Automatic annotation (TrEMBL):
Keywords: Calcium, Cell adhesion, Glycoprotein, Membrane, Repeat, Signal, Transmembrane, Transmembrane helix. It comes from the Eukaryota. This is Protocadherin beta-4-like. Its main location: membrane. The lineage of its organism: Eukaryota, Metazoa, Chordata, Craniata, Vertebrata. Residues 27-133, 134-236 form the Cadherin domain. The gene is LOC113457089. It is a single-pass membrane protein.
Amino acid sequence: MEKMERIHPNRQVMAFIFMLVWVQVWSEPTTRYSIMEETESGSFVAHLAKDLGLKSGDPAARSARVVSDDYKQRLLLDPETGDLLLREKLDREELCASVDPCVLHFQVSLEKPVQYFQGELLIQDINDHSPEFPDREMLLKIRENSQPGSRFSLKLAQDLDVGNNGLQEYTVNPNSHFHVLTRNNSEGKKYPELVQDRALDREEQAELSLTLTALDGGSPPRSGTAMVRILILDIN
């Protein structure tokens, strides 16, 4: 029993030392950077070694490595300069889909002594996608006794970009019968709603064709179009 009592405090001490080492290894603050998507491979990201307070030659002497959370070598650390570089082009849509902001988490590991630094790279969106409708043509059937002010929901367009570069509004070519409003659905996506401005007369015009345009907020903006065919249904 006396022997067990002598060993137990030693285990407590060892556990405490292990915790101190663990905290020292992992308690480094997160380093944050940002870069535009589609930046060329080999491009400079940051003076990583300098930002981490490492001395000249430390990255090479301490076998510094950079690893992304998905274990893909998307970033490189120059062992001579300590600069963080892009190993490959980064496509924001491929990495994060519709998630915004798009953040690539990475770790910097060093040996002798062992140290780990947490890092984050914000992938900024560029306006490299245009809004697209699922179909090039939509068919809408409206009775000729439909009253002005009536509203008709149309299919929404999709834009892979996010934020201001994402889809912002819909327009329709000028005409005397309809205009379009931009609405938000329950998922926060924008969809077009066609609003009737005047009475319809099938005997006067049995079919209308409108050009629906989806616009994003880029500079310059990108757009996509679809044809809306409206059939006026006869009433007795």
